[in-house]
């Protein structure tokens, strides 16, 4: 499923962003977080499409893969949000 692929890529990229920040590359970290958000946006668009179809009366088959996809989506979203905070914290620490 494309949601799993996009969310997995977003999670990996968010972790790369944190690693870049820890290595002192704030610009690289900021770019990686932006890339992660873009990757997750692809998963979000698919998720929104599925929900819209179901709201319009088309039954979407629930499966373990769909549940896993939703789990990966939420995990990626959380890692991006935490990554942004970690990057900001490191940048503030480096300014002192």
From TrEMBL:
One of its GO terms (biological process) is phosphoenolpyruvate-dependent sugar phosphotransferase system. The active site is at residue 68. Mg(2+) binds at residue 71. The keyword Zinc-finger does not apply. The modification Phosphohistidine is found at residue 68. Keywords: Magnesium, Metal-binding, Phosphotransferase system, Sugar transport, Transferase, Transport. Its cofactor is Mg(2+). One of its GO terms (molecular function) is metal ion binding. Binds 1 Mg(2+) ion per trimer. It comes from the Bacteria. PANTHER family: PTS SYSTEM N,N'-DIACETYLCHITOBIOSE-SPECIFIC EIIA COMPONENT. This is Uncharacterized protein. It comes from Lacticaseibacillus camelliae DSM 22697 = JCM 13995. The lineage of its organism: Bacteria, Bacillati, Bacillota, Bacilli, Lactobacillales.
């Amino acid at each position: 499923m494309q949601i799993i692929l996009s969310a997995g890529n977003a999670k990996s990229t968010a972790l790369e962003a944190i690693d870049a920040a820890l290595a002192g590359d704030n610009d690289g970290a900021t770019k990686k977080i932006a890339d992660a958000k873009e990757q997750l946006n692809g998963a979000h668009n698919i998720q929104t499409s599925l929900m819209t179809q179901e709201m319009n009366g088309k039954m979407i088959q629930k499966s373990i893969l769909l549940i896993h996809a939703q789990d990966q989506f939420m995990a990626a979203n959380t890692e991006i949000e935490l990554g942004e905070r970690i990057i900001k914290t490191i940048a503030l620490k480096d300014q002192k």
